[in-house]
Every structure is written in C-alpha cells, then in structure tokens.
Amino acid sequence: MLNDIEKVLYSEEDIRQKVKELGEQLTKDFAGRNPLVICILKGAFIFMSDLVKEIKIPLEIDFMAVSSYGQSTKSSGVVKIIKDLDVSVEGRNVLIVEDIIDSGLTLSYLIDVLEHRNAASVTVATLFDKPARRAVELQPHYKGYTLPDEFVVGYGLDYAEKYRNLPFIGVLKPEVYS
Ligand SMILES: O=P(O)(O)OC[C@H]1O[C@H](OP(=O)(O)OP(=O)(O)O)[C@H](O)[C@@H]1O
Ligand code: HPA
Ligand SMILES: [Mg+2]
Questions:
Q1: Residue 119, CA distances (Å) to 93, 106, 116, 127, 145 in order
Q2: What is the pLDDT of residue 69?
C-alpha cells in the first residue's frame, strides 16, 4: 500500500495539530448553539471522529452517505444520497464536516438539500480544499489545508475504496490509476 504513494503531503502529527486548532475555533464559534454536526460518509469518517473530540461544547451528530466518484479520480457530476440523516435539520445550526472539497459539486448539492429542509444555518468545515478544480462557486467557512491539483488519499480519502486507513494524506502515484 505504501509503495503506491508518491509523496506525503501532511503527516499524522501535522493533521492532529490542525484538527485541534479547528476544534478550538469551532468551540468558540458554536458555543450555546447546540450544533448538529453532520459527517459526510465515507470520506469524512476519520476527520469527524477526531474533530468532535476537539469541539468542547454540547453538540449532536448525524451521518449522511453520498457518493459521486465511484472507481474514478473524476467526479461523475451526479451526487447520490446513499444514506440520509436520521434526524430533522429544521431550525438547527448545522455543521457539515467534509474531508475534501474538490469540484464542489457534492457540497453545493448538500447545502441546497439542507437549506430546503429549513436548517437555521448551514456551515461547512473541510479538512482539505482543492480550489483549482472547482466547477461551482463555493467557499468553506472553515478549512484545514489548501491542496495542489493532485489526487490524494489517506486519512479517510480513497481511490476505488482503498487507502482510507493511511494515517497521513499523500499523493497517489499516477501509474496506480492511469
Ligand atoms: O467536491 P467534489 O468534487 O464533489 O468532491 C468531494 C467529495 O468527493 C469525495 O466523496 P466520494 O464521492 O468519493 O465518496 P466517499 O466519501 O465515499 O469516498 C469526498 O469525500 C467528498 O465528499
Ligand atoms: O483528491 C481526492 N482524493 C480522494 N477522493 C476525492 N474526492 C474528491 N477529490 C478527491
Ligand atoms: Mg471517494
């Protein structure tokens, strides 16, 4: 598995520190608002579990599974909801937790869905942002790192469902997917 990685962009320790900083900021900004923190599966599962431990106020969590990449390194452009939320977002301060914003298609679709369901507010926290590939206008409220235009894996992110368990974020060797 490690042989397929061209370079490590951020180590496990780098990410730990960044997640702690994001958590401190969110703790201040969401104090008294009982946020509903929504993990976008599968990619965000590791970031979500590390992040909520660093948000030191009462909150609730829920999960939504969506997919648009499948076995490819390019978005299909069609966002499919595979698992919906268990609770209503009506009147709630929602914090969406994403691993990465790339084309932005997944998030712009989700924000639309949650606003139509009458959330009181919709805020986005992403660990990684790849603005070079944006197909729609979209800016996260909170972000960890800006990434170059390369396909990355690890810390929850996959290629064809593999590499999610790497503890760091790295660039996949192009020969693995081409
Ligand atoms: O900004 P975009 O171009 O829409 O890309 C970002 C989305 O793509 C990935 O999910 P994917 O569809 O691969 O599902 P997964 O989380 O199960 O890997 C990632 O986890 C984000 O949700
Ligand atoms: O660079 C990426 N890696 C893994 N999954 C992704 N989904 C969007 N962009 C990426
Ligand atoms: Mg994926």
A1: 6, 18, 8, 23, 27
A2: 82
Residue 39, in any domain of the structure: yes
CATH number at residue 111: 3.40.50.2020
ipTM of this model?
0.97
What is the best residue among 75, 82, 106 to mutate for testing ligand 1's pocket, by most ligand atoms within 8 Å of CB? Answer: 106
What kind and span of H or E run contains 83? Answer: strand 80-83
Contact (CB, 8 A) for 98 and 126: yes
Q: Which residues are catalytic?
A: 102
* Inside any domain, residue 158: no
Write the pLDDT tens digit of every residue in 100-116: 999 999 999 999 999 99
The residue range of the domain holding 88 is: 12-150
